């Protein structure tokens, strides 16, 4: 099994690319979906309440995710506190997913894990290959605005992430998602073929 980490910055199309890899036959996991699940977990919410107080919870007891986001994207210390709660749990889920996938032994050759902070948090040693999805910042902002996300809000999130040029430099493979979907898909197909080739070469050496 060969495991690749897929990253990029806010609004640059990681989820779209992940679906393309899944359609080609890769096993995939979206770390953002894991986070969404954790933010509904009562034990996790108790830790968040202890760290952030009652002000980010709704009257019914649920987490006000917009309020939480507004805090963590302007306060690096608070963002670090949330990451300290969530990231170990996210990687527990990732490790469990990888162990389950490995155990299937049913053609689980390529696994792609979408993880936004792959480089920021030094997780690269956990993956065999690193893939960066990128666009020009203006393209990303325009796409986010079309989804109803204010430009200022999107910019504040982008500014908390490593510059995309650094992520491009550190990646084994790069996908320009600033053009047409067909052109993105062509790049994904090429990289998937390369990953399969790498996996098979490694298997032959064992």
Describe the structure.
The protein is α/β, with parallel strands linked by helices and 206 residues long. It has a single domain (2-205), classed as 3-Layer(aba) Sandwich (Rossmann fold). It has 9 helices and 5 strands. It has helices at residues 14-24, 31-38, 42-52, 65-72, 76-104, 137-146, 151-159, 164-170, 181-205, and strands spanning 2-8, 27-30, 110-114, 129-134, 173-176. It has a 5-stranded parallel β-sheet, with helices on both faces. Helix 1 crosses helix 9 (181-205) and helix 3 (42-52) packs antiparallel against helix 5. The chain is globular, with a radius of gyration of 18 Å.
Structural class: alpha/beta
Number of strands: 5
CATH superfamily: P-loop containing nucleotide triphosphate hydrolases
Report the helical percentage: 55-70%
* Rounded Rg: 18 Å
Unreliable spans: none
Task: Give the mean pLDDT.
Answer: 90
Task: Examine the secondary-structure arrangement and name the CATH architecture.
Answer: 3-Layer(aba) Sandwich
Supply the key terms:
206 residues; alpha/beta
Describe what is shown at a glance.
Helix content is 57%, strand content 13%. The chain is of the alpha/beta class.
List the SSEs and their pairings.
Blueprint lengths: L1 E7 L5 H11 L2 E4 H8 L3 H11 L12 H8 L3 H29 L5 E5 L14 E6 L2 H10 L4 H9 L4 H7 L2 E4 L4 H25 L1
Parallel strand pairs: 1-3, 1-4, 2-3, 4-5
Helix pairs in contact: 1-9, 2-5, 3-5
């Amino acid at each position: 099994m060969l495991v690749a980490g897929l990253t990029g910055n806010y609004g640059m199309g990681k989820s779209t690319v992940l679906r393309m890899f899944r359609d080609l036959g890769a096993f995939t996991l979206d770390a953002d979906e894991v986070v969404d699940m954790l933010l509904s977990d009562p034990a996790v919410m108790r830790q968040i309440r202890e760290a952030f107080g009652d002000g980010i919870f709704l009257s019914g007891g649920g987490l006000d995710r917009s309020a939480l986001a507004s805090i963590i994207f302007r306060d690096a210390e608070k963002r670090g506190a949330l990451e300290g709660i969530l990231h170990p749990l996210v990687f527990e889920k990732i490790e469990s997913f990888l162990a389950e996938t490995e155990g299937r032994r049913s053609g689980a050759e390529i696994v792609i894990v979408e993880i936004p902070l792959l480089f920021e948090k030094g997780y690269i040693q956990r993956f065999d290959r690193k893939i960066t999805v990128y666009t020009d910042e203006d393209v990303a902002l325009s796409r986010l605005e079309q989804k109803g996300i204010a430009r200022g809000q999107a910019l504040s999130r982008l500014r908390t992430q490593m510059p995309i040029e650094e992520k491009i430099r550190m990646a084994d493979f790069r996908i320009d998602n600033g053009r047409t979907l067909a052109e993105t898909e062509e790049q994904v197909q090429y990289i998937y073929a390369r990953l399969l080739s790498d996996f098979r070469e490694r298997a032959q050496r064992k």
